[in-house]
Amino acid sequence: MKKILTVLGARPQFIKASVVSTQIADSSSLDEVIVHTGQHFDANMSDVFFEELGMRTPKYQLNINGGAHGEMTGRMLIEVEKVVLSERPDIVLVYGDTNSTLAGALVASKLHIPVAHVEAGLRSRNLKMPEEINRILTDRVSTWLFTPTESATKNLLQEGVSETAIYQVGDVMYDVALQHGAKVSSDGRILGQLSLNPKEYILATIHRAENTDNDTVLQGIVEALSSVANNIMPIVWPVHPRTKGRLQSLGLLESISTELLLVEPVGYLDMVQLEKYSSLVITDSGGVQKEAFFHGVPCITLRQETEWVELVEAGWNMLVSPKSNNMEVILEAVYEGIEATPAEIFPYGDGTAALAISKLLH
Ligand code: UDP
């Protein structure tokens, strides 16, 4: 029996891990111990995903959150190392690009325990993003690099990673979307609570540091979203805790138009409903860009670059830099996005990425 120690801590990681953990649980030769670093800790940023997606409760809850990047990562290194030393796993499994990912990968590699990285090879080529640093360093020390797309595989090959370490398994988020997407209809749930009709609203999410940490940029985004909501159609915006804190401290919450519906972060199934029945998605989230595509909805990404380049090439995703601070550009992009007729593409595998990962880890 091989023991896998999974280190996770942030919302998208719970979602990605849910399908892989199910496959590991079904395998007779793999055993999984889950460590939750505590990076995301609110019930609606953490517990709801374990419940809705049927995940096992983590054996370890480290409760590490807040503080600057160095402090948070440092505390994680100390505590994750203790767990790894006591559990002595055969493999440490990490997801994505957060501080929890990097902490798990660094601890394991220094203890000579092989690291498996799900969502390897993604690059924005913007080293100012904390996520980009976490990805590059994690990939560098990983033994198994599970890539979601061909472009991610190519990035690793270009960086000199051996072909034999790269496994292009597809995107685990596509697996999750296929498994749960079909269950969600337009009836009830959050659409019912907000009295919204399918295809008569836009969904927005904003949480990247580059958009929330700069006052002018965040203010510009709020003005642009208010203008879209007033002139085109209502916007539902589940607000990430980081963004909420920033909106509060800038005094922007009061000025927001009533057509811009701010709600607390929602669970995965409510999010699927909001995505599936929206007419357009406006986001800076990596995962939400792809989920829009999975549910056949065009997307505008408020960033200068994206890791999911194939969606831009096919016309599913349009990049609009919020730094231009230009409401007109965003409004125009929204009109264009709503009318978009993107090409049919299948870049994310066939919905069996999690099964492939569990087989390869045997
Ligand atoms: N998500 C959610 N509720 C929300 C906002 C997002 O369930 O209120 C989900 C979304 O469906 C996707 C994931 O969280 O699966 C994306 O996470 P996030 O945007 O926090 O991070 P990123 O993908 O940018 O790393």
Topology record:
Blueprint: E1 2-8, H1 11-26, E2 30-36, H2 47-52, E3 60-61, H3 69-87, E4 91-95, H4 99-110, E5 115-118, H5 130-140, E6 144-147, H6 150-158, E7 166-168, H7 172-181, H8 189-193, E8 202-205, H9 209-212, H10 215-231, E9 235-238, H11 241-249, E10 260-263, H12 268-276, E11 280-283, H13 286-294, E12 299-301, H14 309-313, E13 317-319, H15 327-339, H16 353-360
Parallel strand pairs: 1-2, 1-4, 2-3, 4-5, 5-6, 6-7, 8-9, 8-11, 9-10, 11-12, 12-13
Helix pairs in contact: 1-7, 1-16, 3-4, 4-5, 7-13, 10-15
The structure holds uridine-5'-diphosphate.
Uridine-5'-diphosphate is lined by residues 11-12, 15, 205, 207, 238, 265-266, 268, 271, 285-288, 291.
Domain UDP-N-acetylglucosamine 2-epimerase: 24-361
Keywords: Isomerase
Family: Belongs to the UDP-N-acetylglucosamine 2-epimerase family.
Explain what this protein looks like in three dimensions.
This protein has a seven-stranded parallel beta sheet, sandwiched between helices. It is an alpha/beta fold. It folds into two domains: 2-168, Rossmann fold, CATH 3.40.50; 189-338, Rossmann fold. It is built from 16 helices and 13 strands. It has helices at residues 11-26, 47-52, 69-87, 99-110, 130-140, 150-158, 172-181, 189-193, 209-212, 215-231, 241-249, 268-276, 286-294, 309-313, 327-339, 353-360; strands at residues 2-8, 30-36, 60-61, 91-95, 115-118, 144-147, 166-168, 202-205, 235-238, 260-263, 280-283, 299-301, 317-319. The N and C termini lie close together (9 Å). The mean pLDDT is 96. Uridine-5'-diphosphate is lined by residues 11-12, 15, 205, 207, 238, 265-266, 268, 271, 285-288, 291.
